[in-house]
Amino acid sequence: MNIFRNLLRSVLGFHGYRRRHRWHEPENNFDFRQDDVQHKRVFQVYVLKTDYGHYVGHTGNIRARLRAHLADEVCSTAGGNPKLIWQSHPLKSRQDATRFEAALKSLRDNRKNEFKKYTGLVPEPYQYH
User: Fold this and answer.
1) CB-count burial class (<10 Å; 0-12, 13-18, 19+) for 76
2) Using H for helix, E for strand and C for coil, what is the string for 85-101?
3) What is the pLDDT of residues 98-110, one digit of tens each?
4) Domain range annotation of the chain
5) Strand 44-50 and strand 53-59: pairing?
6) Residues 4, 14: contact at Cβ < 8 Å?
7) Do residues 60 and 29 touch, judged by C-beta distance below 8 A?
8) What is the pTM of this model?
9) DSSP alpha helices (H): ranges in the chain?
10) In what order do the strands lie in the sheet with 44-50?
């Protein structure tokens, strides 16, 4: 049975009997070597102004991610004329960036005054298309 579980984990991406689910595919940043990840890699949360409202996201490479948004390679902002209008200070882990992104999205949608206090922006709710 352990051989079967290991095969599922390694080949198919299953963990136990449950497959990991992500809302998006993790970004592939080839700018960083694997041994640099723990020491030099930082993450940032950013806000883009689009035709659909303010898009909030996080990344480990802001330049590459912005290029992807501008080239319409990101489904969420494709065709929306994205412009970078705010970015956070560097965060040490992806987990911190993900939590900060979720909190910022919540502020954007539910607590507009606090969103403005943190970012200096008047929030525009994002319309998913």
Assistant:
1) middle
2) EEECCCECCHHHHHHHH
3) 999 999 999 999 9
4) 36-129
5) antiparallel
6) no
7) yes
8) 0.69
9) 2-7, 37-40, 62-70, 94-110, 112-119
10) 53-59, 44-50, 83-87
